[in-house]
Amino acid sequence: MKTIFVTGGAGYVGSHCSKEFAAQGWNVVVYDNLSRGWRDLARWGELVEGDILDRDALQSALTAAKPDVLAHFAALTYVGESVEDPALYYRNNTLGTFNILESMRAVGVDKMIFSSTAATYGVPHQVPMPEDHPQQPINPYGWSKLMVERMMDDYARAYGLRFASLRYFNAAGASPDGEIGERHEPETHVIPLAAKGALSSDYAFTIFGDDFDTRDGTCVRDYIHVCDLGRAHAAAAKYLMDGGAAEFFNLGTGEGTTVKEIADAIEKVSGKPLPRKIGPRRAGDPAVLVASNAKAKAKLGWEPTQSSVDEIVQSAWNWAQKDAKARG
């Protein structure tokens, strides 16, 4: 059986991808320090508690697992926090990935899937955004991920690393069977916050800016269902196992949804009014971020099948109710 070593596999995207890897016949080994992941989300394969900043522990775990592929999700992802404490992000995201790359070299693992981000692009020059779009991040989070992409590219040229770097746009939704879903502390993502507003009578959902040059004045984002991301990662693993060369891929739908449309969709599925307030624009927020996913379709044989707004919001709402009840 093929083995995949999943760093950050107890987090939101990592857990959904671990579930998909297991469904497609992979032996999954999750490596997570549980600082921002959740033990109850790491339910596919063995969980090894460890930190990517601890190279000895990481290398020992890799030696024991003998993986065919490493899938790397262990990153900090809050843009605001990265501005307030950039050292935290460069240490964990950039230095931590350097430790992973060096540990992989030491034990002879040469295939890697990287959880990257549209934040490596910065402000869009064109929409939809292709993979060769200029990369000029506007926050330390985006820079910490772009530095990793550069490291991987250099390791590919010098040491034979083969990788698939997957640049997500807006990961959203939850497993339709209700097993796992989105849980962050603090929560900063639009759909869980809108669900919170529908669940709580004393919480008003904030829309940051309603004067953008879009169809209703609110930001447009490309929301991709987390289960579609899972299938993309499984496709990337197959691509690498079949001898695919190092590549960068956008993961999105190619279409955008406004923040107001998300709020309306939450009202529709919940059957409850969603209290809203308009806040100021956030610094650096582009009006529109939409992916071109043509390359992933062509080279990975992947396309989103679960990423309609209705499917995303329904699955997120189902999970929000279940998780809120379970956590009291």
What would your notes on this structure say?
The protein has helices spanning about 10-25, 55-65, 80-85, 85-105, 140-160, 190-200, 225-240, 260-270, 295-300, 310-325, and strands at about 5, 25-30, 45-50, 70, 110-115, 160-170, 170, 205-210, 220, 225, 245-250, 255-260, 275-280, 290. It folds into two domains: about 5-170 and about 225-250, 3-Layer(aba) Sandwich (Rossmann fold); about 190-220 and about 255-320, UDP-galactose 4-epimerase, domain 1 (Alpha-Beta Complex), CATH 3.90.25.10. With about 325 residues, the protein is α/β, with parallel strands linked by helices. The protein is globular. Strand 5, helix 5 (about 140-160) and strand 6 (about 160-170) form a beta-alpha-beta unit. Strands 3-2-1-4-5-6-11 form a seven-stranded parallel sheet, sandwiched between helices. A three-stranded mixed sheet has the order 12-9-14.
* Head-to-tail CA distance between termini: 40 Å
Note the run of SSEs as H and E: EHEEHEHHEHEEHEEEHEEHEEHH
Number of domains: 2
CATH architecture of the largest domain: 3-Layer(aba) Sandwich
> Strands across the major sheet, in which order?
3-2-1-4-5-6-11
General form: globular
Give the DSSP E fraction (strand runs of 2 or more residues). 15-25%
Assembly classification: single chain
Rg computed from alpha carbons, rounded to a whole number of angstroms: 19 Å
Mean pLDDT: 96
How many extended strands? 14
The CATH homologous superfamily name of the largest domain equals NAD(P)-binding Rossmann-like Domain
Q: CATH topology of the largest domain, what is it called? A: Rossmann fold
The CATH class of the largest domain is identified as Alpha Beta
Low-confidence stretches: none
Supply the helix-strand structural class. alpha/beta
DSSP helix count?
10
Largest sheet features? 7 strands, parallel
